[in-house]
Design a protein that fits this description.
The chain is mainly beta. The chain has one domain: Methylamine Dehydrogenase, Chain H. It contains 3 helices and 29 strands. The strands form 7 sheets. Strands 1, 2, 3, 4 and 29 form a 5-stranded antiparallel β-sheet that branches. A 4-stranded antiparallel β-sheet has the order 5-6-7-8, with no helix packed on it. It has a 4-stranded antiparallel β-sheet with strand order 9-10-11-12. Strand 19 and strand 20 form a beta hairpin.
Length: 440
């Protein structure tokens, strides 16, 4: 792998104080998950204990899932070292308390409420006991000791919810339903529970991006993927929503669809939760749009293309929700030979670097952003695990956690300094780890 860049090459003339001030100001008007940061990462330090929750695959019905997780695993965070430790007196992992047909399955995606002590888990499966209702979302209360307490479960109206997020206002929750190719909007009560009086609204990705004009691409190699051999092909048989999240201002909701090679942008009604006036932007055919993050300025968006192992750089207009594709850059080193599937992406706290994940290559790609927003691959770092699915920063932004869900069965921890990352030597054993979320 390429040699590590020097501290001088990674240095930017921004003081820590001004950086913290900017991030805190951004947090007032945005959901930091859309920026690629955790909900608490604008805080320089937590005022109390911090807890970590790892979503896992519990059902091995599909080989790539693994199925060795126990539910939502729960830990206490050592903020000085980044270590994750069992919560005293609490079970290692929790499932909901429903009957056998509705017990939590594959809680692969987690999201916390922006202001309440609530955590949500997207149950990634296609049906409940053979019914057509598909996947679901479970709500948990975060108790004083950090342990999770089951509150309720609701059907999301779609199949295989691969990603969930909560709007910054805390009134609505979104699910990206992979197998059914649609997005659900679920209303939340003032206490963070599900509002059963308001039906779940489902929006089809194909309808949003032009119906018959919006067709899945053929499996052809995108130009930006030609720098390496082993272009991956899968799931261009129809729409597959892979991520849904509001923009930094909370006025639009964006959806990345892997099967359609597009990002869809909806206007969002903050009072009713209605999505309307969709627009979309296409990436290269067969790229496989997967996950995205915003730059802290709210004007630049970086999208991971799973099949092509590329990063699409887009400009974003916050007034209209319109995205414009600028460029696509390989996330793998030139000359790499072999298949790889890109997955997670996360903006680093300095706002000048971000990281993305490569499955099978099993690496973290570190990118540097220039003054025009263009990303440049700096180097790769071994993830110390197999098939990295997602990565998340702790609330302080000092540590990066990488979840491995296929055969790695662990979470690895990296220290973040000056826009670079270094492995801490710490592994946390979690079967089929898919995502991690923090709460203070």
């Amino acid at each position: 792998m390429p040699s590590r860049v020097t501290d001088q090459e990674l240095h930017y003339d921004h003081t820590a104080a001004s950086r913290r001030h900017f991030l805190k100001a951004t947090a007032v008007v945005s959901g930091l998950g859309a920026l690629g940061l955790t909900a608490l990462s604008a805080q320089a330090a937590s005022s109390g204990p911090v807890y970590a929750y790892v979503g896992t695959y519990t059902d091995g019905g599909k080989p790539w899932r693994g199925g060795r997780g126990l539910g939502v695993h729960q830990f206490a965070l050592n903020s000085a070292t980044g270590a994750l430790m069992p919560i005293a007196g609490a079970p290692a992992a929790v499932l909901n308390t429903g009957d056998a047909a509705s017990k939590l399955r594959n809680p692969a995606s987690l999201a916390r409420h922006p202001s309440l002590r609530m955590l949500y888990a997207g149950n990634e499966f296609s049906a409940v006991a053979g019914a057509d209702s598909g996947g679901s979302v479970s709500a948990y209360r975060i108790e004083a000791n950090g342990a999770l307490s089951f509150v309720a479960e609701i059907a999301c109206g779609g199949k295989d919810p691969a990603h969930i997020s909560v709007h910054p206002d805390g009134r609505f929750l979104f699910t990206a339903n992979y197998s059914s190719g649609d997005v659900s909007v679920i209303a939340l009560r003032a206490d963070g529970g599900f509002d059963a009086d308001k039906p779940v609204a489902v929006y089809k990705d194909v309808d949003a991006c032009g119906g018959t004009q919006c067709k899945p691409g053929a499996d052809v190699v995108p130009k930006a993927a030609l720098s390496h051999e082993g272009f991956a092909t899968s799931d261009h048989d129809g729409p597959h929503a892979h991520m849904v999240h509001s923009d930094p201002g909370g006025n639009f909701v964006l959806v990345a669809d892997l099967g359609l090679d597009r990002v869809i942008s909806y206007k969002f009604d903050r009072s009713t939760g209605v999505l309307s006036q969709p627009s979309s932007v296409a990436v290269s055919e067969s790229s496989g749009a997967r996950h995205f993050c915003f730059h802290p300025n709210g004007k630049w968006l970086y999208l991971v293309n799973e099949e092509a192992s590329t990063i699409a750089f887009m400009r974003y207009h916050s007034g209209t929700g319109v995205l414009t594709l600028v460029s696509e850059t390989s996330a793998l080193p030139p000359g790499f030979k072999g298949t790889s599937y890109a997955s997670g992406i996360r903006m680093l706290p300095d706002g000048q670097h971000f990281v993305s994940l490569n499955r099978l290559h099993d690496s973290i790609s570190l990118f540097k952003i220039n003054a025009a927003g263009e990303p440049k691959l700096v180097r790769e770092e071994w993830t110390r695990g197999n098939y990295p699915r997602s990565c998340t920063l702790d609330p302080s932004g000092k540590f990066l956690y990488v979840c491995h869900n296929k055969q790695g069965d662990n979470v690895t921890i990296f220290r973040v300094t000056k826009g670079d990352i270094q492995f801490t030597g710490q592994y946390v054993a979690v079967g089929s780890a898919s995502s991690i979320e923090f709460s203070a």
